[in-house]
Amino acid sequence: MRKIRLHLSYDGSNFQGWQKQPGRSTVQGTLEEVLTQLYAEPVRVVGSGRTDAGTHAVQQVAHFEAPKILSSEPKLMRSLNALLPPEIVVRGAWLAPEDFHSLASARRKTYLYRIWSNPVRSALWHHRALWVPHELDVKFLNSLARQVLGTKDFASFQTTGTPVKSTVRTVDRCHFEQRSKHMIDLQIRGNGFLKQMVRNLVGTMLHLERNQGSIADFRAIFAAHDRQAAKATAAAHGLYLYRVEYPPALDKKCLKL
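Now predict its structure.
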């Protein structure tokens, strides 16, 4: 068998997340259906991580074991894009070494959370950015974002449902940027993320901004190690899996198709 690495983008608005679920439309399930059609044999896809229902991806990474060599394999990306729905696009395909694993080999991930800050909602960004109907204090939000940096216990920002050995994670980038008059992006990068961790962080920071909270309040939420101490979970449709990074030596062993 040959291991194939894929990079995908998708608009998650009409999908029940990445993970395959019986009777539900998911990104993984849709991709497996198309690959099974191409290879005329069942194909299982492994992603770099799950995304929630309604969440998008600029760069999701996945791999699969190809059951045979297709005569059209050099045009695999084109073949997949011809069969996939318009909401999913394969951006690249590589022949990967045996030791590549889209989930286990990942070293860092970057997420983007997009906010439309305007008293008037946006028709175009309705499914792709969180609407906040007032002007945000970006300077204050960044004072909170700096508290996220470093190696910390993020238990207060973990939604239950996926058991983990540890809730300690390292975040080396967390910053709000005013992209335009009404669009604000949070970019956050780390070595791993807990279930809905980014959405819980955003929801909490927006709550503190709206209710004149303080850095001390945010630190107290961290220190509680209790999800009940944090605030609401920000909506899924503002979140994008932006980039997944792998060891450079492993990247070099992947051959472009």
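The longest strand covers residues 56-66.
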